[in-house]
Amino acid sequence: MTDLPDTPDQDLLALDGLLSREERATRDRVRAFVDEHVRPHVARWYEDAHFPRELMPELGRLGVLGMHLHDEGCPGRSAVEYGLAALELEAGDSGLRTAVSVQGSLAMSAISKHGSEEQKARWLPEMAAGRAVGCFGLTEPDAGSDPGSMTTTARRDGSDWVLDGRKRWIGLASLADVAVVWARTDEGVRGFLVPTDSPGFAARPIVPKLSMRASVQCDVDLDGVRLPADAQLPGARGLSGPFACLNEARYGIVWGVLGAARDSYLDALRWSLTRRQFDRPLAGFQLTQRKLTDMAVAIAKGQLLALHLGRLKDAGALEPHQISVGKLDNTRVAIEVCREARTVLGGNGVTLEHSPLRHASNLESVRTYEGTDEVHTLVVGQRLTGISAFR
After folding, report:
1. Cα separation of 63 and 184, whole Å?
2. What range(s) does the Acyl-CoA dehydrogenase/oxidase N-terminal domain occupy (predicted)?
3. pLDDT digits (tens, 9 = 90+) for 196-244
């Protein structure tokens, strides 16, 4: 087999020089984990629609659960390091990066941002270690892009709260120990920590799926779930509570999708160097080189955008519309790279022996969750015009 050039990720613009030694070490450590623990198994997991829950403690030891949080027991790494980790995880599979995002950027972030000191002490160290799993219940069957129309309710009954309603597309819910559930109350939308063994809580994996198969998304029913008063997240009032968590997850997506794109590109590159047609390597044809060039340039530009947003986030200067720019463009670019990579592979690209079509299928989910293309387009449009087009 023809060897690839020395730089395994095809660092076309010498972007490594923009990273610190510590950032490169974090990236390399996560990449090595994915190579050892994910790549040998992910095609089978995808085919079997299986997410290996036993990976969660391993991910905890790797230090990627709640990676960017600075609470006691959390890794406390930089936004750029978290982004690099997300990229390497998604190079394995979007389902893996999604699990880390649901745990850290959504559930743990909600507790960190909005929880009491007691709630933080109870859950964050266990979740950072992967000994406890969390989920984030915002989306409903009839309230996806418009969470303000949620119908799940929480009503007071003496000193307790009683929750009723339904949630849909809730990652990790059937594996979780605790659910962060958002519900409408007399005081507006509030967040609650719901132990998943509570009577009236039920989570059912959504099957069958054509995307994110090595991952778990669920329908959740809340039927008279009774919670003590201290189950409420005291710092979250209104939709700004969940939106703050969604922005953390969206930031991770800006980086993560580039991992799927890079893995697809490298698969196509390796294939083109070894596959011979008409007595020459496929890589020797002009049309193939154009495809490879377009893919490599698109990935490099996406990495520059992600790194710029990461530096802004670490400086405390990142704004929501900037995250929308990154999520919108990097996701749609990544899908196109994956699809183009599949064309280089020809018919063999539709098998699970190769990654591009698996990645492309996964990314159809990624472009939908945490804000669709349309939602992020309107966020950016509002920033440009000063006019909200949502209603």
Report:
1. 34
2. 21-130
3. 999 999 999 999 999 999 999 999 999 999 999 999 999 999 999 999 9
Residue tagged active-site, from 340, 353, 370, 374 = 370
The contacts of residue 46 (CB under 8 Å, 6+ apart) are: 93, 95, 213, 214, 352, 358
> Cβ–Cβ contacts within 10 Å for residue 2, how many?
10
d(CA 194, CA 232): 9
CB hemisphere CA count around 61 (13 angstroms): 5
Number of H helices, E strands in the chain: 12, 9
**Cα–Cα distance, 213 to 43 (Å, whole number):** 10
> In this structure, are residues 107 and 127 in contact, taking their beta carbons and an 8 Å threshold?
yes
What tokens does 85 get?
Answer: 């980790």
CA gyration radius, the chain: 21
Structural domains of the chain, ranges and CATH numbers in brackets: 15-128 (1.10.540.10), 134-231 (2.40.110.10), 240-385 (1.20.140.10)
Collapse the DSSP code of 239 into the 3-class scheme (helix H, G, I; strand E, B; otherwise coil) and give the result: coil
* DSSP conformation letters of 140-175: BTTBSS-GGG---EEEEETTEEEEEEEEEEEETGGG
Residue with tokens 């995880």: 89
Phi, psi for 134 (deg, rounded to 5):
-120, 160
Helix, strand, coil percentages (3-state) for the chain, rounded to 5, are 55, 15, 30
- Identify whether 208 is preceded by a cis peptide bond (ω within 30 of 0): yes
* Contact assessment for residue 49 and residue 208, using Cβ atoms and an 8 Å cutoff: yes
Say which residues have a Cβ less than 8 Å from residue 17's Cβ, sequence separation at least 6.
none
Per the CB < 8 A criterion, the answer to whether 359 and 312 are in contact is no
**Residue 370 catalytic?**
yes
pLDDT tens digits, residue range 309-360?
Answer: 999 999 999 999 999 999 999 999 999 999 999 999 999 999 999 999 999 9
Exposure on the CB side of residue 146, measured as CA atoms within 13 A: 6
To the nearest 10°, report the CA torsion of 356, 359, 364, 368: -150
**DSSP H helical ranges for 235-372:** 240-274, 286-314, 320-345, 356-366
User: Distances from the Cα of 94 to the Cαs of 28, 331, 336, in angstroms?
Assistant: 18, 12, 16
Classify strands 276-277 and 280-281 as parallel, antiparallel or unpaired. antiparallel
